[in-house]
Amino acid sequence: TEADGRHGLTVLGATGSIGTSTLDLVRRNPDTFKVVALTAHSRILELAEAAREFNAELAVTSDPARYQDLKAALEGSGIEVAAGPEAVVEAARRPSARTVMAAIVGAAGLAPTLAAVARGARVALANKECLVCAGDLMTAAVADSGAVLLPVDSEHNAIFQVFDDERREGIEKIILTASGGPFRRTALEDMRAVTPEQAVAHPNWSMGAKISVDSASMMNKGLELIEAHHLFAMPESRIDILVHPQSVIHSMVAYVDGSVLAQLGCPDMRTPIAYALAWPARMKAPVERLDLGKIATLSFEAPDLVRFPALRLAREALRQGGGAPTILNAANEVAVAAFLGRRIGFLDIAAVVDATLARLDPKAPASIDEVIGLDAAARRTAEDLLGSVVAAQ
Ligand code: NAD
Ligand code: MG
């Protein structure tokens, strides 16, 4: 709580899908939240506009080459301007923000998210890749600092709402639901030729490009399996994945007495974001209300591990442990970028991840520097493998 009584909030990745949904809620609750810092990589004019609208103390671009543009856009506003990855970390450290929304995409969010954790902030965590690539170090840092991790990912937010952490012995398993993405019914032969446009057209959610491709390959659910393992300290064997195309049940917790608790809602990220921002209280969110009578039917099916090998790769990486999830995540980031850049085909994404995992020693990284080193090595290996994937076609 700040001097003016409002809840200080910093948004990392303020121009993205999660970032703008977060600011939409802040806009509707001007007496509740005070924006401290906003960061973004590109879309400098949108960043500057948001910084002015919310009267942020500080605006940061992670891209040093965009410093002058941001400075020019904020001329005369009195808003501090900074640039570069280290400036994003400094923004995350600002103590006047009680809560940090971690909504950068990819392992690029690791250092700033850790900085927020290290100062004991409330961290609303959308950036699942940072838990995938450094889960053990992240949870150890949370335990050290007393930070609170509030899951924003809709599945994990759902589990968080119905997971009785005080009576963990009563919990049998958690069930992550998955929409199945745009290719749920696409034959394997046809998946070979799908375009980036088809892959990012998610049936239920409007999201950034990278997570949309991850949803299409179901690597997103694989990353979420690893994320759930770290957030809820559950072994891989007790986390199930269930395809549920309507995305109404956001996930479930099964108890030893046969009870299953679920959280439901229309698919709109402003619900889990509102829960993370207001926790342990509730705040109003302007989302469509769930009308089950109108929806009438909820359906479920088992995931198809043949058409969606990413699910198997992620499960194996979690089972193997050590550095395997770090390698999986880095290789996937490279492969998804290559697919979006039309350098490889859709099915090559999982092939590149698989081949990268096979090439590297998955020794557990013992420090953040070692995570960063392994992430970089996996990116180089995956880049090299892109060529052979293309050559094989
Ligand atoms: P997005 O692409 O829409 O936005 C990403 C944000 O991160 C932007 O503000 C961008 O400027 C910033 N960014 C990109 N690269 C950066 C870098 N190298 N350094 C610093 N900042 C950088 O992505 P999104 O869909 O909002 O997703 C953000 C995170 O939330 C991802 O980890 C994603 O998996 C997770 N998530 C998103 C959704 C969703 O509905 N969009 C749901 C669940 C989880
Ligand atoms: Mg999710």
Automatic annotation (TrEMBL):
<feature type="binding site">
    <location>
        <position position="220"/>
    </location>
    <ligand>
        <name>1-deoxy-D-xylulose 5-phosphate</name>
    </ligand>
</feature>
<dbReference type="Pfam" id="PF13288">
    <property type="entry name" value="DXPR_C"/>
</dbReference>
<dbReference type="GO" id="GO:0051484">
    <property type="term" value="P:isopentenyl diphosphate biosynthetic process, methylerythritol 4-phosphate pathway involved in terpenoid biosynthetic process"/>
</dbReference>
<feature type="binding site">
    <location>
        <position position="215"/>
    </location>
    <ligand>
        <name>1-deoxy-D-xylulose 5-phosphate</name>
    </ligand>
</feature>
<feature type="binding site">
    <location>
        <position position="17"/>
    </location>
    <ligand>
        <name>NADPH</name>
    </ligand>
</feature>
<feature type="binding site">
    <location>
        <position position="127"/>
    </location>
    <ligand>
        <name>NADPH</name>
    </ligand>
</feature>
<keyword id="KW-0414">Isoprene biosynthesis</keyword>
<feature type="binding site">
    <location>
        <position position="224"/>
    </location>
    <ligand>
        <name>1-deoxy-D-xylulose 5-phosphate</name>
    </ligand>
</feature>
<dbReference type="Pfam" id="PF08436">
    <property type="entry name" value="DXP_redisom_C"/>
</dbReference>
<keyword id="KW-0413">Isomerase</keyword>
<dbReference type="InterPro" id="IPR013512">
    <property type="entry name" value="DXP_reductoisomerase_N"/>
</dbReference>
<feature type="binding site">
    <location>
        <position position="18"/>
    </location>
    <ligand>
        <name>NADPH</name>
    </ligand>
</feature>
<keyword id="KW-0560">Oxidoreductase</keyword>
<feature type="binding site">
    <location>
        <position position="179"/>
    </location>
    <ligand>
        <name>1-deoxy-D-xylulose 5-phosphate</name>
    </ligand>
</feature>
<feature type="domain" description="1-deoxy-D-xylulose 5-phosphate reductoisomerase N-terminal">
    <location>
        <begin position="9"/>
        <end position="135"/>
    </location>
</feature>
<keyword id="KW-0479">Metal-binding</keyword>
<dbReference type="InterPro" id="IPR013644">
    <property type="entry name" value="DXP_reductoisomerase_C"/>
</dbReference>
<feature type="binding site">
    <location>
        <position position="129"/>
    </location>
    <ligand>
        <name>NADPH</name>
    </ligand>
</feature>
<dbReference type="InterPro" id="IPR036169">
    <property type="entry name" value="DXPR_C_sf"/>
</dbReference>
<feature type="binding site">
    <location>
        <position position="154"/>
    </location>
    <ligand>
        <name>1-deoxy-D-xylulose 5-phosphate</name>
    </ligand>
</feature>
<feature type="binding site">
    <location>
        <position position="15"/>
    </location>
    <ligand>
        <name>NADPH</name>
    </ligand>
</feature>
<keyword id="KW-0460">Magnesium</keyword>
<comment type="function">
    <text>Catalyzes the NADPH-dependent rearrangement and reduction of 1-deoxy-D-xylulose-5-phosphate (DXP) to 2-C-methyl-D-erythritol 4-phosphate (MEP).</text>
</comment>
<feature type="binding site">
    <location>
        <position position="202"/>
    </location>
    <ligand>
        <name>1-deoxy-D-xylulose 5-phosphate</name>
    </ligand>
</feature>
<dbReference type="Pfam" id="PF02670">
    <property type="entry name" value="DXP_reductoisom"/>
</dbReference>
<dbReference type="GO" id="GO:0030604">
    <property type="term" value="F:1-deoxy-D-xylulose-5-phosphate reductoisomerase activity"/>
</dbReference>
<dbReference type="InterPro" id="IPR036291">
    <property type="entry name" value="NAD(P)-bd_dom_sf"/>
</dbReference>
<dbReference type="InterPro" id="IPR026877">
    <property type="entry name" value="DXPR_C"/>
</dbReference>
<keyword id="KW-0521">NADP</keyword>
<feature type="binding site">
    <location>
        <position position="224"/>
    </location>
    <ligand>
        <name>Mn(2+)</name>
    </ligand>
</feature>
<dbReference type="GO" id="GO:0016853">
    <property type="term" value="F:isomerase activity"/>
</dbReference>
<feature type="binding site">
    <location>
        <position position="155"/>
    </location>
    <ligand>
        <name>Mn(2+)</name>
    </ligand>
</feature>
<comment type="similarity">
    <text>Belongs to the DXR family.</text>
</comment>
<dbReference type="InterPro" id="IPR003821">
    <property type="entry name" value="DXP_reductoisomerase"/>
</dbReference>
<dbReference type="GO" id="GO:0070402">
    <property type="term" value="F:NADPH binding"/>
</dbReference>
<dbReference type="GO" id="GO:0030145">
    <property type="term" value="F:manganese ion binding"/>
</dbReference>
<feature type="binding site">
    <location>
        <position position="128"/>
    </location>
    <ligand>
        <name>1-deoxy-D-xylulose 5-phosphate</name>
    </ligand>
</feature>
<feature type="binding site">
    <location>
        <position position="221"/>
    </location>
    <ligand>
        <name>1-deoxy-D-xylulose 5-phosphate</name>
    </ligand>
</feature>
<feature type="binding site">
    <location>
        <position position="208"/>
    </location>
    <ligand>
        <name>NADPH</name>
    </ligand>
</feature>
<feature type="domain" description="1-deoxy-D-xylulose 5-phosphate reductoisomerase C-terminal">
    <location>
        <begin position="149"/>
        <end position="232"/>
    </location>
</feature>
<feature type="domain" description="DXP reductoisomerase C-terminal">
    <location>
        <begin position="264"/>
        <end position="380"/>
    </location>
</feature>
<comment type="pathway">
    <text>Isoprenoid biosynthesis; isopentenyl diphosphate biosynthesis via DXP pathway; isopentenyl diphosphate from 1-deoxy-D-xylulose 5-phosphate: step 1/6.</text>
</comment>
